Structure formats: C-alpha cells, structure tokens
Fold each of these.
Amino acid sequence: MMTRFVLKRFAHAVGVLWATFTAAFLLLYALPGDAALSKLNLGGGGAYSAEGLAKMRAELGLDQSVFVQYGRALWAALHGSFGVSVQTGQDALQMFAVGVPETLTLAALALVMGLVLGVGVALLAAYVQSPLLRGVLLSFPVAGVSMPSFWVGLVLLQVFSFQLKLLPGMGNDGVASIVLPATVLAIPTAALIAQILSRSLSGVLASPYIATARGRGASRSRLLVNHALRNSAIPVMTAFGTMSGQLIAGSVVVETVFSRSGIGLLTVKAVLFQDTPIVLVAVLFAASVFVTVNLIVDILYPFVDPRIEIGVRRLDILGARA
Amino acid sequence: MGRLTIVRKALSCTILMPLLGVASNFAMAQPPVEKVLTVGLAEQAQCIDPQQDNYGYAALEGRGLVDSLTDQSYEDPSKIVPWLAESWEINGDATSYKFHIRKDVTFSDGSKLDAHVAKANFDTLSRIPGAAGASYFRGAKAITALDDYTLEIDFSQPNVPFLAATSTGELGLVATATLAKTPEERCHVGVVGSGPFVLDNVKLNEKTEEVKRAGYNWPSALRKHQGEAYLDRVVYRIIPEATVRTGALKSHQVNLIQSTNYDDAAPLAKSGFPLEKVESLGTAVNLLINTSRGILADKQVRLAFSKAINRQEVVDLAFSGYKIPATGVLTRKTPGYLDQSQLLAFDLAGAKKLLDGAGWALRADGIRVKDGKPLRITVSFYAAPINQAFLEVVQQQVRDAGFDLQLRPLTGGAYNEALLAGDYDLHRWEWSLGDPDVLRQLYSTKGLNRFRLPPENAIDGPLEAQRATTDPAKRKALTDAAQKTILEEAYAVPVFFTQELWSDDGAVKGLEWGGPGAGSTSQILYDVTLSSVSN
C-alpha cells in the first residue's frame, strides 16, 4: 500500500515539476526584453550596436522560435544541464547550488526556531488559567504575521547590530551572523504555527478523553504535552508545505536586508536580468522542495495519528468495501 | 525522555542559541593585525571581468586588479599621464597610436607584460560581443607589436578619444592565462592582472576580498607613492539597503560606504563621518526627446518644456540638494563642457508664451489643448525610486505651464525594448566618460539614435568630426556646436548633474578618484591608509 502510494506521489511530483518548468519558461519568454539586451546594458556607452545585439542573441540561442528554445531547454534539463548563467557565465546549476546550503541552513534554523517558539506560545496560552494572559499570548501570532519581515529585520539590525553591537549585521561568517536573519524568518513561521496549534489544542482539550485523564489526576502540563499535543499536531504538519514555501520566499527579503549570499537574492537578480537558466533552476528547486515536504508530511501522518492510513481510498474508510 | 522534558529542553535551547551566537561574535572580534579596508557597496556587478562588464565593475572592485596603459586625472580630465605605457606617439590625424610599454611589469601569476601580451589583450577583447571595452576598438584596422615593448594600433578612421579610452579599467590589461579562458569563464572566475591588488575570493552577492600584490612597483604618474599598496586587504561588502549601509558605518562594521542615504549624509558628517561628493564626468542626467513623433516634433513645445523646469527646485525637493542643477549637456567637470545656463534658466512665463504661440490653448483644468488633443506626453524611465522622485517634481512643475506629463516606469526588459523600438516620447539617461566623445556615443544617429533624428541632421556632422580632430581648439569648436544644437533645438533636456555620495569613518585617508569606467567614476585605493584615529 505504501509503495503504491509513494510511486503515485512520485509520478505526481514529476508532473508538478514539468508544469512549473514550462510555466516559468513561457513567462520569461513572454516578458519584454531578453538576456542579450540586459547584458549589453543598452542604457549607455558604446557597447550597443545592432550587429552586436544580433550576434549575442544568436550565441545565446535567443533568435530561435519559442518551441525550439523550449525543446532545447527541456531536453537539456532532463539530462541535468541547465546551461550557463547569462550574467556570470558560470554553469547555472553550479552557481545556484553554491547558494543552496546557506539558504537551507537559514531556513532550517528558522523552521526549528519557529517551531519551538510557535509550539511554546500555543502551549503556554493553553496552560495559563488567566483569560487576560491568554489573550495577550494569543495576540502574539497576529502581531507576528502583521509585521512585515523587512521592517522587523531592519529594526533588529538597528538595535542588536548597530546600537548594541552584539551581533554582525551582514554576511555569512559563523554562527553569530545567522542569529538575526533566522529570527526574522522564524517570526511569521512561529506565528502561523502558534495560531494553528492553539486552535487545534482548544478543540482537542474539549474531548472526553482529556476529561478522563484529568479525572485520573494528570497535572495541567502533563495533560497538554503528553495527551493533547500529539493529537493536535496534524493541522500543523499540514501547514508545513505552505511554510516551506514561505521560508524560501522570505529568504529573499532576509538575504537583502542582511546582505547574505544565498538563493533568494540570486533568484531575484536573475529574474530582473531575465537570466533564464538560473530562473529555471530556482523554480525547479522551489517546486522540488514543496513537493518533497508535502510527501514527507503525508508519509508521517499515520505515525502521528494511527487512525490515518495512507493510500486508502475514501470508500474503504467508510466501510463500503470489505 | 518524557515529552514534557523534550519541550522544556527545546525551549531552553532556543534561548541558549542566540546567546551562543553573541558570545562567538565577541570571541571572533579580535583586533586585526592586517590593515583592512571594508567598503559597503550598494550593488555588485555580476560579471567580474573589468574588460567585459557593462555595469561598473571596472570602476570599483575591478579598478585595483588591473592597470591601464595611461591614467586620466579626475581633477583635470584633460591630463593623461603615463602608466603601463611610459610614452606614446599619435600621428597627425589620430589614425595611428604607438605605445612604449614599461619593461618591469609582471602579472600576479608571475608572467611578464610586453607588447605581445598587450596585443593579445586587445585582439581578444575586440572580438568579445558586447564587452564594455570592445567598443573602443571599432574601426581598428591593425594591432601590431613592433618589438617586445612597442605596441601600435591603427584605425581606419581618425580616433581622437582613444587616448582617454586607454586609461579606463575596461582596457585594463590581463595576463595570458586569463586570455586563454572563454569570456563566460572570465566572467565568473575573474581576471589575473598586474594591479596593486589581487582577487582573493568572491562570494556572489555578498562580498569580494582582495589582497595586496607583493612586489607591485608601477603606479601611474598621478599616484602619491611607489611600491606596494599600503592596505593589506580590501573587503567589499554588498549591502543593498541604504539605511543598513549607514548603520554598518556607524557601528564600524565598514570603513566606507557608497551612495549614502540623503537623509543620513548630513547627520553622519556632523557626528564625525565625513561625506565626500564625487561629481560625475560625462553627460548630465538628460531627458532625451523622441523628435520623430507626436507633440514633441514641434520645437516650440520642446523648448517650452525645458523652460518650465525649475532645476534648482528639482534638486532640492527630490535629492535634498545633493545633486547639481544642470547648466549644460555635459557636466561641469567634463572636458569640453559648455556653460549654457541661460538656455536652462527657469522661465515659466517664457514657456507659456511659446505654447500660446504654437497654438496650445489653456483649458479650464490647467492643461493645454490644440485641435481637440491635450498636451499629453509620456516620459519612459527605468523604474527606480530615484527616477520616480525627480520626475514627479518635473511633472508638477510642467503642469504649471499646461503640460500633462505622464510617468511610465519600466523594468529592465521592457525599458530596453522601448528604447530600441523608439517607443517613448521622453526617455531619461546619462553616461559617464571623461571625454566629450560621450556626446557621440549617446546621441549619434549611428548608435541608438535616441533623438530619432532623420539622417539629414545638424548634430551628426560635428559629432563625427570631433572624433577625428586632433587640434584641441578646433575640437572644442565642434563639440560646442553639437551641444549648442542639442539645446537650441531642445533635443535633450538636461535636468541635473549627478554626484556620488561616499561617507567614511574618519580613518580613511588618501582616497582618490580617477577617470570613469563603464559608466561610473573610478575609485583608487592604492594610496589609501587607515589612521588609528576614528570614531
């Protein structure tokens, strides 16, 4: 059952990747201008000449029809080659791959911090008895989502790096430099997790089995963590897919504010320059991450909640079949 | 471990980690033994080859890596002095240049510089499509190494501006090992040059590090000392946000920043972070008019438009006074500058009179109309806040005369295509070059023909001729004639002269500027020292 499920999902994933590849390619093609124009910096100097432009376009293969260009790109992609970046002349996959570990570290750390913070706030809100305190705690997620991360980053930078001089404000050297960026990325993640979890927790806490456990003398904290938490986790896991997308997108802002190299800034510059190879790699990467995270989450469901079985069709659950 | 314990441990780890981070930061902050200059740049050029990049690499990070045949003084751009070439001869009509190259120059990989290497440099460069330096070799007939240290370049047409071109970073010389690489490889691996600094490592979009070249001893005649550079290391950090650059300077994470925020410049200067304003060489920031279409085909309307602009007010409102109102087509520091402030004076009454005379009647809402059509024109520009800012001021100003100016911000590709297709009424551009030939590069109908003039026009003649005139007085007469025509016909509307704002921490001494490269004034770090006194 599991194998069939995974295979089906894998086929589905390939379909998603192909679709995103095609959509990205066509969008880039449809945009005005092209990489040759960007490279020549049409704006000034003597670099431009009509023949120079034609020659460059021929060299980059941009003078072919859209079908030819697409076919070439797809064929090469299937063989693992995405061509060479128009901006730097480096192999697109290689150039992108250099930035991936940095962004992944940042995103992973932000995810962990966000998870801990979000779960912490939700648990705390469920734990406290005073409605006032609970109200205050539950307002944190709302605040976290409302504050633009750009602004939060700049404020943290000003306070912790420039005024208090506790942490470096830019670059990727060492543990110190990842703290502020990860914090900025973690806040919207934590907010989302806290929101979802606290909703889910309040639902679960109303269940009969909780009352039973309380009747048997379980302390408040024990109730929450040992009995309620696991059953409340499903909605949070479902949100992981969205969150991974959010983290990758958020890394663009964070990398700009904190002057870090990584795939975020790289992708933005490639889009503006219409550096197709890099954009295609970036899009495929994002799609792959999305698809993988969702697949992992789907596989983990039954481990968290044994009532869920993977790959079982709805009719079977309802007992329509034997 | 119980689940509760896990939660507790996780929470404490999350709190512990930032503290660890802070502690490690202090552990790393040792007093530096090296003399390191850290520069905060606003952008990073993507192609790290000074000969190829069209976005300013040759003026900043690339300038210290390569040397050029000659050097151009920023203070007096008509002064061109020896550098890698000890001396040179130019024939009567500037069709032949002969350079005598120094015999003691080596590249950072140990190879020697001679005329054969120089020839190979220029041969290779002129064949790379779209390379910044290649354009200077258009019309080059032959490049010959007459002997080991004499290089001759012959042009099929006279080429007076070529000498100034040899001082740019775009014509900086690289080693044979670099020439053996493909242009794409050079763009991401970098070049081996003979400059006072050597590329150490590059992290795309984050930083570039350069170290001192041991044994360097061939600075240009404009530099203040001999031998190696004073700095051991230069670190360029890319900090795209202006406020972050300011904060980085104030907290001493960098020594020098580029493009200081207007609002921060004065407060920084007051608290001991001096501001340096570097005026650009080249053209003013102009609004170029497409004279072939629509309402602006009428010269009276163009002249009225120019008169309606209060340039001082534009500078004060949009740039907090940190630009210079234009007084000519070229900036005032450029050789060949012609002062035409009369033609560029603010004259609202004059503008209104011209429009009345051209048949444009005033409507109730303040916009003028003629034959049922409103006086509506569109300015196309590269979408950036700095452009939006000053064009909005212009929009309000010209409305007083009855113009309905529409703003049309365009991003990269769309902007390029509009320019190529002539799909604009007005279009904003400028370019940096320490030579009046910049007029030809930008405005000649043989290039992009930005004014969209017909083949029979009044500016091509002088623009082509100045390129071929060796007599300085005659050349000035020609460039003056071109500039006069441009303003009297109102093909272009100069608005302001741009200047770059650089702030440092008070410890940076000996910072110098050079002739422009790929559109930006060159920054020279060779004579820079860091005094121990800073804020």
Amino acid sequence: MDLTIEEASSLKRLLGEVEARPPGPADPAIDGLSPALVLEPETEEGCSRALALCQTEGMAVVPLGAGTRLEVGNPPSRLDVYLSTRALEGIVEHAEGDLTVVVRAGTSLEALNRELSGARQFLPLDPPLPGKATIGGVLALGEPGFRRRPGARPRDLLLGFEAILADGTKVKAGGRVVKNVAGYELSKLLVGSAGTLAVVTRACLRLRALPEEVVTLALPFSRLSRAAQAVHAIARQAVLPEAVALLNPELSKENGFEDWTLLARFEGFREETSEGTDAARKQAGRRGAAAASSDVWDRLRDFPARPLGEVELLLRGQATPSRVFALAESWQDGGPLVAYPDSGIVYSQTRDPEALANRRETAALWGANTVVERAPSSIKNEIDVYGEAPGGFEIMKRIKEKLDPRGILSPGRFAGRL
Amino acid sequence: MPSLVDKPFRDELLRLLDQSSCLFEPHQILVYECDGSTAFKSAPDAVVLPRSTEEVAAVVRLCDRAGVPFLARGAGTGLSGGATPREGGLVISLTRMNRLLDLDLENRIALCQTGLVNLEISRTVASHGLYFAPDPSSQSSCTLGGNVAENSGGPHCFKYGATTAHILGLTVVLPSGEIVHIGGPRDGVGYDLVGLFVGSEGTFGIATEALIRLMPVPETAKTLLAPFRNMVTACEAVSQIVASGIVPAALEMLDRPTIEVVEAGVIAAGYPRDAEAVLLVELDGAACGMDRLLSEVRRICLERGAISVSVARDEAERARLWLGRKAAFGAMGRMSTDLYVQDGVVPRSRLPETLERVAAIAAKHRIRVANVFHAGDGNIHPCIPYDGRDEDEKERVLEASREIMELCVAMGGSISGEHGIGTEKSSYMSLLFSEDDLAWMLSVREVWNPKGLLNPAKVLPTGSSCGETRSLPSVAASAGAWI
C-alpha cells in the first residue's frame, strides 16, 4: 500500500481519536519492509476501530510493542500498518492479596515489576530488554526467559486477557482468578501466536512474592560430558534450582568464566538456597564452584537481542532435555552459545551465515528443530525460519483462516508462513 | 427419542470391533446414562469399548459418515455431565485403553493410553521416585483422558498446576476420524494446540494417547491442622501465608457443618468439633527448609487466631487428616437424600466476604450449606443437601445455586474452577462472557468439530437452554466422587 499524506489524513478522520502517522526513524523495519502507516490507539476502542478499518480496507497489520523482537518470524508477505500498543499502558489493577495483576499490553516488563516491587512481588518473566519489551510482545512471542520450568512460562502465567480480533471485535477469555475452567483455553492459543490471531490489549497475570534470597553458583568444566553429568545430578537434588544454564567456552569467556560453565540459580528462603548451593557444589569438577553475581542472568536474558555484527545468525535449537548436550556440542564452535537443559533449548550466535544448513542438519540428527531467530533477509526469504512443519498444521491453518479470514494479521510471519 | 443407532449402523460396528466390545442392550448401557452428576440422565443408544487409536478412528469415521452423535468417556467420575450424551448416539468408552506405553526416565516423561487410571500412573513410576502431579479427589478411579478433557485440578494443583501443566503431547482422533499428533517431548513451533485442547471437555476431539510430564517425589511432606473460631480470620491466614512467599502444596478449608459430618462418620479425622473452620496446610519439598516453613505457617495461623496448630506426627496421622478432607463429600450423604455440589472461584482475598454471602443466600432460600474448599485457589465448593422428592426444596436449591454463581462472578471470579461447564453450566456461561466472546469460542470449536457431532450441546449455551436451567443439576453423594 502506498499512502499519500492526504490519504493518510483521510484515514485519520475515519479513525477518530486514533493517532495515525507515517513511520518515523524510531519505527523498526522488518526484513527491510516498512509500513505506510503507524496507528497508535490510546484506548481499546481505538484499537478496535483501527483493526476494523484495516480489515475493511484489506490492509496487512503487524501489531507492534516496543519492536525489540520483530526480527523473529518469517518476513511478512504484506505489510501496510503497524498497530502500536505502546499507548495502551499502565496497571489496571494490582490485587496484592491475590498475587495477580491486570495490566495493559503496552506496559514494559520493567515498569510493571518496578510497581510490583513495592508490594514485594514480581512477574517471573525474563524477556530480553525488559526496559523496553512490552507485556503484549512477550505474550505474542510466548518464549520464556532463563526460567524455563513449568509454572514460570508465559503460558502458565496468563490467567485471562482481552483482545481485539481481526474484524475489530472485542473479546475476552479466562479471568482474574488463578484456577478457572470456564470456557475454552484461548489464552494458550494466543500465547506464542506471534500476532497472527488477535491483538491482546490487556492481560491478567499471576505473580510471585520476591524471594528472600537469590544465589548463583558457577561450575566450570573442561569437558561438556562432565557438565552434563552435573546437570543430571543437580536435577535430582531435594532443592532444585530456579534456572540452569550452560555456557560454551566463548560465552563463558565473555562473562569472566572459563571453559564450559554451568550456572545454577537458586531462589527462595535462605535455608533452601543454602542447601541447594551446598548440594550443587558437590557436582563441581576439578576447578570447584564459585558464587557468581546475578548480573550474569541479565546478560543471558538479553542474549537473543544482542547484535553481534552486520551479518549474523541467531538460532534457537529445540531438543529434548536428554539431547540438549549433544546439540550444544555440535553447535559449540563459531560463536557464543547458551543451553537451557531443563527445557532442551539452545541459543547460538554465529557470524557465518553459511553455517545454517549444516547446523540445521546436525540438529535434525539429534531429533531437534532449528528456529532461525535472526538472519540476513536474503536467507530468511528462502526458508521457513521456524524449520519443521508442526504436528497438527492443518488445524493451525484452519484456525488462522477462521479467525482471520482476510489474512490481515501478520500475514506470512508464523510457522508454515501462516 | 428414537434410536440413532439403527441395524445397519450396529452391523458396521460389529464389523469394526469384536462382539464383546459393542454394547447394545439397555441393561448393558444403563450404567452409561450419567457421570458423577447423577441428575443428568440421558442414555446413549450404544456403547463401544475400542482397544486402540485405530479402532477409535474407525468408529469415529463411521459416526461421521452416518451422522450419529458420539462422545468419549473414561471412568465417568466427572461432575458436570461432560461424559453424558445429551442427544443419544454412541458412547466410546476408553477404559480398555489403559496401558502405559513408554517410560522415558531421562526426560521424565511417559506415553500413556488415556483410559489409564490417574493413580495407576503414579503407582507404576513410584519405584523411580516419580509421580504424576494432578491429583483430583477421584484419582483412584478417574482416567487420564478425563483429566485432559476437564483440565482437572486437585488439592495439590495450587503448587504444581492443573493437568495442562503436565501434558506435553497428544494423539487425537478428530471428529472426521483423522488421527493427528500434536505437541511432543520437546518444544515445537506453531500454535499451542495441546494447551488449547486440554480442558476442551471432549468437544474438540478424542485424545487416545498422552505424553505426560512426571515429577520427582518431594523429599518430605508435612501436614498442619489449624482449627479457627472464625472463618474470616482463617481465610485471612491463607492470604497471609501465600503473600509471605511460602508456596504450600495444598491449602484446604472445611467449615463447621462439614467438620461435624466428617467427625460423625467412620472417617473421623480428629478435626476439633468446636471449630468454625479447619485449615489444612501441606508443605512439601526439601527437608532442610521445612522447620522454618512450619514455624512461619504456625506463626501466621496463631497470629490470625488459630485455636491451635498441630503437625501430623507420622504418615498415618497425615493420611488420616487428608482422608477426612477427601471423603468429606461422601460423608455428606448422611445429611440428606440428595446433595448438590457447587464449584465456583473467587479471588482468594474475597473468600471471607463470599462465604458470608453464600450463607446469606442459603438463609434466604431456607437451605443448608456445608463448605469444603481449596482455599489457596479461592475455589469454593458449597455443598447443598436436599430432598430430591421435595419439589419446592429443589426449586429453592436451584435458585440459590444460580445466585451463588452470580455472586462468584460479581466477586471477580468464575463459574467453575475444576468441575467443568459440561451440561450443568452451559447456561451460566453468559454470566461471564459476552455474545462475542462465546461466538469466538464457538468458532474455535468449529475448526475442530465442524459438524458438531462430537459431544454436542456442551460448554457453550445452545440458545434454547431456558428449559435446561430448570433441571436441577444434582450430584449423587458417593464416597468416590470429588470435590
């Protein structure tokens, strides 16, 4: 779509109070594509009007939070409008006694957690760049941060939400209580749907009390196989770590460690963290174990968002927990890498785009899938960045067609180019 | 209603399955006319008991071709009519599909047929120090498939999450008869179809196999008993425990009428009969921090006016405390000929006000209410004993029940925490959701179940349900049923 200023102004009249403007330098492009228009409604009603107009006009819309992870996904097949949720900001209700919060989609993680900290509570999500990343964006991506055990993933924490469908209809599902089976689990459908089914405008999320103590232990290992044994043993401790990460020698070095480094983060009451770290220390290799600053988790959290160079690849490998070490080993050279053994996820960065085919093949040998989170557009245009065709793809396709019949929401961006 | 299952259809079934797997005689299918909620009685025209996913798919294809409505059933312990046919047709019982197919200890996952009984899973893997966390009170009889359909909870889901947190993958027979595999042992891509399917109450497809997550058995578990003179302060203690950062495995409450009926029976648990409320707190995890947690919970309870706080000294005492709680529902059979068990949720902080207003609703309608509930989750179960032969009393129970649902919604809660919507509550859905919300849910269901032959007239209001709301959704008081 090519809009003249006059056409844009006429649209603005149709949209009423909704802010409509051409994209500026602060609006990120997706794989070289920029929209003709940025709509930034300040209310849910405005958001509804904006989407209704886009559907009527057949304009392709990409919902936009802070744009910190726009690179994730296939290049859009069409792009006319960014629908920014940034103006939908702020906490609607923090029910302290219930450890729940209702928050608007454009609120940043950091702003939310700053407010919650007054009540000694927090939302245990750790997306990259939390100072910018919005709740809406985090839910749309659906990826957990370094906390990867059940209970702390976006799908576990979203209790209910309000959203706008492609035709502008306002809907809600779930609720504000921590246990609820009324109606279908549409929150599970929307988390991780990458803005292809609806635009979430507000969310009710489950919170946690701030832990009394956070302790991180770093265990260096010269051999990966030995680190794997330690992970296995730590997973059988009475006190389990809140997060476990394994850094390859290159990422270790960047963080002031050596060789392969196993990081174990314990959270909770002092008695628990102390027992947990004591037990984990016993799994250390020759070079022992040392307490590490919690800052390292901030760097791991931001790992998927950090730019390495002009031409680069960022890969997310998905393996079973038992195969995660084999995958990490086969991807270890050529750039920094972090593996999360609890969930079988490996993030790997490399400056060599030629490495992609080889890495995908070796991952497949281990039964793993490779998602290309960042790559030059020339590569992204040739592949499905999500890798495998998911089980039940025909159902996914029908869901997309049913909920977005004109294909205006992030067309082509999702798995299988939905 | 004329039978939807005619002779040619029966002959087809007999070609697909052996004779012992097909039940056509009225005396054979009588037991399938209801689930745990005995008030919804509606018999199927036939029942089949397939042994494999392929057999289920073949039967479903036949139903699809013939236009015969059908639904899946596990043990039939549900409390919302989810496994009871509303329009006749065929019941596909999965109880013969009860094998654990594969155990992967390294990844702590197991592949099971969905007719497997919940507790059997934990028994089978116990020697490896593992268990299956969802623990609905019916766990000794309910099946994994039923847990998947209802997204079942249980006392311990406060800490470990309901069934949805423990299902990684599913083999599903779609209403067309097509077999699909969704999810799997590792993260995948695309929409979270497993998350969407769990809790769809048997209206999206028939799950025949499930890949489940197993958890390590906690090193230790301690149960505290804290009787209170006042329900309000007991509820405040619950909120304070949770706010302190302690995550108990379970936080359960019984009120005075429930205490009385439990203590009068053979399952007397030793709850003090002079208490207005009994709070049961279970803490599990590592032994190291347990003393600190126990003393913290004890301090909070005493600060909030607990009469005493005692910790079960051994496993036998702990089991006795839990038996009283889990069998409370069955014990209520002493109170009257019939029992209606409600299931609603409110924000935890609004429990005291909610319970007071439930009592006021009961007084207004001249009915009795006994409360036994998952306090940590704000999931209440007002139990209303009544005489089903007394039409006037039935009418009053019905009215009170609706007012309790409206109350839960007004408190910012929900109309079901774990029993499901099924037949019982589809007409209440509009208390929570707008027409647009419901239309959206329907459009998602139509993707899976386009002809509506699978488990029709469940979950979403049918639009002709005014009459349906007048039938009293009562629940038989049987010791095995859950609350």
